[in-house]
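The authors assume throughout that readers already know how a fold can be written as discrete tokens. For illustration, here is how one protein appears when written out as sequence plus structure tokens.
>
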Amino acid sequence: MAKKKDKKEKKDKKPQRRVSFGFAPKKPKSYAGNVKLSGDGLKEGEVGKTSVFTVDTTTAGDGDLDVKVRGPKDAIDCNVIEIGDRIYEVTYVPKEEGPHVVAVKFANQHVPGSAFRPNVIKGINPNDVVAYGKGLE
């Protein structure tokens, strides 16, 4: 005569399901962390003089470059020009002295160090310079 199986035994003998994807997660197509920036325009500037910096996206993958510059009161127009294969030169002309903000994004992500805070000083007007003394007579 066959024995009746206990309900508990049936539960214990259920086959286990395993989930396997069979592939590794894909890396993002773009990585803002690989963008390299250089130039004085990220650190300092002078009112009325062009500030310049370079953005290198060669190892960052696919993505759009977005650069915004803001002075103490208003936004400042900036020009982004491709000067090499995925290497860009950014220029802007500060209109007022004080702290500025330069935000650089690649593929909608801030690059390392962004936003930068260059300090802009008032330029020296050559007409305001006066020289005098014995050596100049």
In short: DSSP finds one helix and eleven strands in the chain.
